[in-house]
């Protein structure tokens, strides 16, 4: 049992778990010999899922204060965010390969469903670039403010998803839990009896 816990704590083991969906979707593509459509969809979904989990970590930690596992998750926020970005890059790479024409890619940009995808990816790139200890210390309070772009990225992903697909249900099923957690967090911070206004997680 101790060995299992130690293995799960090892950064490499956690990163391997995060890589599993990519391994599955790419093997499926390689073995089935079908098109890249499934990889495009699955990579988009995993990018969105991991972004949601990254954002959900702080409210979960607040709700389950005193428990060990939310802290375990909290310490892996950076890996989760990086994995979300890498899945989004895979998603973009598949889209580019499928379109295989810069004019078509630029033409697509006039549509809101594509524009929101690009906006989300740009914000996720910025968040990935600033997610290191050096910038955390040198940017100070600005680092925390810039991190809030993750919420804008999540909103852009939600709009990208519902505008891209005819059925809103999968996007709603993914984002409603995050909205509820964030609503609780806002209530806890600002509206609960005895709440004080302040910056950053408790
Ligand atoms: C870089 C710009 C982006 C482009 C050009 C793009 C392109 C696309 C396209 C063409 C689809 C339709 C797939 C299909 O129905 O076959 C799609 C769906 C989707 N995209 Fe993106 N996307 C971008 C960024 C993102 C980002 C950053 C995320 C998440 C973090 C994301 C998440 C999704 C999701 C969840 C879907 C629905 C997948 C499904 O069918 O279940 N996309 N995207």
What topology does this entry show?
Elements: H1 2-9, H2 11-32, H3 37-63, H4 69-74, H5 77-99, H6 102-108, H7 112-130, H8 133-139, H9 141-147, H10 149-164, H11 169-191
The protein binds protoporphyrin IX containing FE.
The site of protoporphyrin IX containing FE (HEM) has 24 residues, from helix 3, helix 5, helix 7 and helix 10.
Helicity level:
over 70%
Order of helices and strands: HHHHHHHHHHH
* Helix segment tally: 11
Beta-strand content: under 5%
Q: Which molecules are bound besides the chains?
A: protoporphyrin IX containing FE
Based on CA atoms alone, the radius of gyration comes out at 19 Å
Low-pLDDT stretches are none
- Quantity of strands, as a count: 0
Largest sheet: none
What's the end-to-end separation, in Å? 32 Å
Task: Name the shape in a single word.
Answer: globular
On the 0 to 100 scale, the average pLDDT is: 91
Which structural class matches the secondary elements?
A: mainly alpha
- Give the count of structural domains: 1
Task: Write up what this structure looks like.
The chain is mainly alpha-helical. The chain has one domain. Helix content is 82%, strand content 0%. The protein is built from eleven helices and no strands. The chain has helices at 2-9, 11-32, 37-63, 69-74, 77-99, 102-108, 112-130, 133-139, 141-147, 149-164, 169-191. α5 packs across α7 (112-130). The two termini are 32 Å apart. Protoporphyrin IX containing FE is lined by residues 37, 40-41, 44-45, 47-48, 51, 88, 91-92, 95, 114, 117-118, 120-121, 124, 157, 160-161, 164-165, 170.
